[in-house]
Amino acid sequence: MASTIDDVFIKIGEFRQFQWYQFAIFGYTLLSVSAFPVMVVTFITAEPDWKCVDGYMNNTVCRFNKSITLTSDDYKERCKIPREAWTFVDDFTSTVTEYDLVCDDSILLSIAQSCSWVGMLVALLVGGYISDTFGRRIIWYGGCALAIVATWIMVFPKAFVVFIICRVFIGIGAGFRNSTSFAMLTEFTTDKYRSWMGIGSFMFWSVGISIVPLIGYLVPAWRMFLLITAIIAIPVLFFW
């Protein structure tokens, strides 16, 4: 009777150093290439409070003498006020403050928040087929590298269109990574450990989305925030 792949793994070791190595690598990429880049947009597109500029405060142009928070009923009143009459409260910076994504331009904020998910959807739909043709490892590594490079590019340029394009590529890269990693992670052990390997790796996602708010709290400048997440992802480039 011919041996199955599970029979071979039982003889050579179902879960040894190689499997632990795999688990750590794929878990780290889930944290740094998927959880970080995808969830960071919640913070780098955050809307800060606003207030009237001193010269316009308490007059017919801008009647508020306090900071207006996001939850205030008056938050959108700024759209009725000349732009030079109000300013953002300097608690933190984001793409909203840098590109002035308010009022008529607020639709761009929604695009910025959703475009990475569009890229990920496309990659998830085609990633399996492409990996069957060219190999899972190539598509996995290519997706990771694409997301990392796009994150680095997004840190520096001033053009909002570059930000949008990079967000799309981050989604594509994360999608390629996600569409291949589960199979790669579980095919090198027996069915005794496959569910543990596959589901257990998602604890790195939980850790990642838990760390993102902490970084956002400690680093109020959105470009520096992105730079930190980009630096954390650099080791992935050596995982080939």
From TrEMBL:
SUPFAM superfamilies the record matches: MFS general substrate transporter
Cellular component, GO, one term: membrane
Family annotation (InterPro entries): MFS_dom (IPR020846), MFS_sugar_transport-like (IPR005828), MFS_trans_sf (IPR036259)
UniProt entry keywords in alphabetical sequence: Membrane, Transmembrane, Transmembrane helix
GO terms, molecular function: transmembrane transporter activity
Source domain of life: Eukaryota
A Pfam family this chain is assigned to: Sugar_tr
Subcellular localization, as worded in the UniProt entry: Membrane
Topology class, membrane: Multi-pass membrane protein
Annotated PANTHER family: SOLUTE CARRIER FAMILY 22 MEMBER
Protein name as annotated: Organic cation transporter -like
Organism expressing this protein natively: Paramuricea clavata (Red gorgonian)
